UniProtKB/TrEMBL annotation:
This is Uncharacterized protein. It comes from the Eukaryota. SUPFAM superfamilies: S-adenosyl-L-methionine-dependent methyltransferases.
Amino acid sequence: MARTDKDVDLVLAVAPQPVTFWLELGSYEGGSAIVTAKRVAAQKLETSVIAVDTFLGDARVLWERDPEERRKLLRPDASIALFDRFRTNVHRAGLQSCVLPVPATSVVALKLAISLARRKVAPPGGPANAGEPWAHA
């Protein structure tokens, strides 16, 4: 079990139960969101994993890669295809029903989460409720 697995398991063990909502800030290519969704599934929890990132990258994301990898990341309009890579990684893992990518800054995502919590609006829990609209708790 990798460190990330243990970290997720620790949080799931000490968090108030049931854990129905997991907000990840800074999801990059989806690795930790995928690990989280797998650990949640292994524990048979119905948890939505919300993965927030701008998916814009930075200079390091692009220029520290070899030329072939750089070409794969750059779109014809010079934007970076991190969001596409994230979605592909989540889809390959078969977790698209419980991982929701949100292209936003961390600040915007936190403000949204706070606003929804104040109104007692909660996301559906995990794969069993995939596709259901957000509902009042």
